[in-house]
Amino acid sequence: MDLSGLKNLRDFRIVLLLTVIFSGGCGSDQSNRSSVADRNVADPQNATYQEFWTRLHMHCGEAFEGRLMEAAPGYDMLDGSERLIVHFRECSDFETRLPFHIEEGPGAWDRSRTWVFFNHGADGLELRHDHRHQDGSEEENTWYGGDAIDGGAYWQRFVYPPRTEEMGVFMGWRVEIHPGKRYTYGTMRDDEWTFRVDFDLSNPVAPPPPPWGF
User: Fold this and answer.
1) Phi-psi region of 145 (alpha: psi -120 to 50; beta: other; left: phi over 0)
2) Is pLDDT of 128 > 50?
């Protein structure tokens, strides 16, 4: 380095400090990028999380009708005759919101439920349930859910820890996404469906109004 242009020792120290900072910062950034890339390659499960997330976004902005496919004895939220609509309403890198609309009668709809998926990158996916009253306030039972524990590019299982610990078997949700064909949401006990709704992704319908509170 040519030091002839430096007026004094203070100038030299400033140049030296800046050189160390910038060279160290570049090395750290490259190291971080390599670490992320290596982690994604080394973790097949993280790859399936991202593939599932990509498929979940393929119908953003669209809405589809569905129907009740399975329900355990005693289940009474749906009887199978209702119109059901899922709306792939909000999609971002971190959060995806799918309001679930249930027809209660001519011109009357329950718009209280929204399925909310979170993408935590290398830490996996999370499913939560946002339940609202018609005035937009939160219901007492809301924001329950859990993390994805296994799955693939087209499906993921999300565990509900309190019920799983209580029952001693897997209790939670299974979500499937087959773009252009089918979206499935349901609750499970071990490997058995206790509730399941399927939506036809081959036939979009008019998007519904926003869910309550939004």
Assistant:
1) left
2) yes
